[in-house]
Write a structure and sequence with these properties.
It contains seven helices and eleven strands. It is α+β, with helices and mostly antiparallel strands.
Length: about 270
């Protein structure tokens, strides 16, 4: 079965999932989405990245102007219907990385990493493979929104942006007690730590819930002053540990007394 599937893919005949802006006709042929607005949004995203140069700038433009992406439902009773969805950072990144927009039929762009699979979620655990490791790469097989040259330029720019973001500084040390442990009480997302410099140059942590802002260019959920939260958690921790600490102290005192008595007894017999 795998051999047959691979042979079909090498001919460009294997039906692979299509990104926003494409449809598959009953004949199996891939075509641009017949909805002109869906096409226009795809062209807008690609054009914005060419002009603005970053995924964040594109996402902010879409969010500020209340522009949604037209996506065809892949399964269920509404399969094939066009739905409009809120743009996300991951969605914009996937559009810019997808070679289909340059008319390229590709297969083997990702593989399954068993270590990343999540129980009950069959589509998790997939990781992207390097371009040279793609199994099939057939230019000109699909209708295109942009040229192959522009697609390559987009990929290079995204890689350069990623390299710069990873190279800016090191992970910062700081006084925050609960870094990586605090979850937002409103949305349940993990909160990050920012630092504000106060009098005398002292750093004060602030716990910030910015996932919606980062992923969807939405408003910030909330932020909380770190010192008061850290102090409250410290008090709770010490209170919880007090009985155990008392027990340990009593046990230590008992061991010290027993040791002293043994020393005294051995000295008297000598």
């Amino acid at each position: 079965m795998w051999t047959g599937r691979l042979a079909k893919a090498r001919r460009g005949e294997l039906a692979v999932p299509l990104p926003a802006g494409f449809v598959r006709r009953p004949s199996g042929e891939v075509a641009l989405d017949p909805d002109e607005q869906a096409q226009a949004v795809v062209r807008l995203v690609l054009d914005l990245f060419e002009r603005l140069g970053t995924v964040n700038a594109v996402l902010c433009f879409l969010a500020d102007n209340h522009i949604q992406l037209g996506v065809r439902v892949r399964e269920g009773p509404e399969r094939g219907e066009l739905t409009w969805r809120r743009p996300s950072r991951a969605g914009v990144q996937n559009m810019l990385r997808n070679p289909a927009y340059a008319g390229i039929y590709a297969y083997g762009r990702s593989r399954v990493d068993p270590r990343r699979r999540q129980a009950g979620r069959p589509f998790t655990g997939r990781v992207r493979t390097a371009r040279e490791d793609w199994i099939v790469f057939l230019p000109g097989l699909l209708p295109a929104y942009i040229s192959i040259g522009q697609y390559e330029k987009n990929r290079q720019r995204m890689e350069a942006n990623r390299s710069r973001s990873q190279g800016l500084g090191a992970v910062r040390n700081g006084p925050a007690l609960l870094a990586g442990l605090v979850a937002c009480g409103r949305c349940g997302k993990k909160m990050t730590v920012h630092y504000q410099r106060g009098a005398g140059g002292k750093q004060h942590p602030v716990y910030v819930c910015s996932r919606g802002k980062s992923d969807y260019a939405a408003g910030q959920c909330q932020q909380l002053a770190g010192p008061c939260i850290d102090a409250h958690v410290t008090d709770l921790l010490l209170a919880a540990m007090a009985p155990a600490a008392l027990e340990v102290s009593l046990a230590a005192a008992g061991q010290a007394g027993a040791s002293a008595r043994r020393s005294t007894g051995s000295g008297g017999s000598g």
